[in-house]
Specification:
The protein is α+β, with helices and mostly antiparallel strands. The protein contains six helices and six strands; from the N terminus they run αβαβαβαβαββα. The two termini are 24 Å apart. Bound molecules: flavin mononucleotide.
Length: 178
């Protein structure tokens, strides 16, 4: 397997970080990657808020317990969408998020995605970050040097992945390779 492909395969969710700030140059590289992400009809329906203020991150982390770990991360990139096309923007948001995570990993940093929660919690995140109410803001991508891959949440998700044999068919649904 090529090194690049292996780098992509080994991207994992990081939730615990060293306190060291993320250098500006690293943040800029991630933003360039985000900027060049393809989007539906090349609409580029996003705006990125780089958050390094610990108090802001702590307040975001208080929106719901599974994202309390935001308080310990040095930097986040909140993804704000235009709010004009729900399905297209959800897809675009996933693409740009994954690219940021992959780029961070390639640069030796860890990354983790956090969802703010339901509509009320998203409204809370918008208030904290000063985002206009009509925009969509449901997630933030955290970046920093990983200290561990352990999931510190009270109800951690099991790791690992389903085997390819459960995930893939050939030529027709349910058909295994002969
Ligand atoms: C759409 C989406 C939302 C997620 N939201 C959260 C979240 O709010 N909090 C969190 O700790 N992890 C969140 N995750 C991370 C997943 O839990 C993680 O990708 C999954 O458990 C696999 O982790 P691994 O790659 O380390 O095995 C989210 C992932 C996705 C794709």
């Amino acid at each position: 397997m090529s090194d690049t492909v292996e780098t992509i395969r080994t991207v994992r969710q990081i939730r615990q970080y060293a306190p060291d700030p993320v250098p500006d140059d690293v943040a800029k590289q991630l933003l360039r990657v985000a900027r060049w992400t393809g989007s539906s009809r090349n609409s580029q329906p996003w705006h990125f808020i780089v958050v390094t203020d610990r108090e802001q991150l702590r307040r975001l982390g208080q929106l719901r317990p599974p994202i309390a770990w935001l308080a310990g991360a040095p930097l986040g990139i909140a993804i704000v969408l235009d709010g004009t096309s729900a399905t297209g923007e959800a897809y675009d948001e996933g693409r740009v998020t994954e690219r940021i995570l992959v780029a961070a990993h390639a640069l030796g940093y860890g990354g983790g995605v956090a969802w703010f929660g339901d509509e009320k919690q998203q409204a809370g995140a918008k208030r904290i970050l000063g985002i206009p109410a009509e925009r969509t803001a449901r997630s933030i991508v955290m970046i920093g040097r990983a200290t561990t891959r352990t999931d510190p949440r009270p109800n951690p998700r099991p790791g690992g992945r389903k085997p390819l044999s459960e995930l893939v068919s050939y030529d027709r649904w349910g058909r295994s390779r002969s």
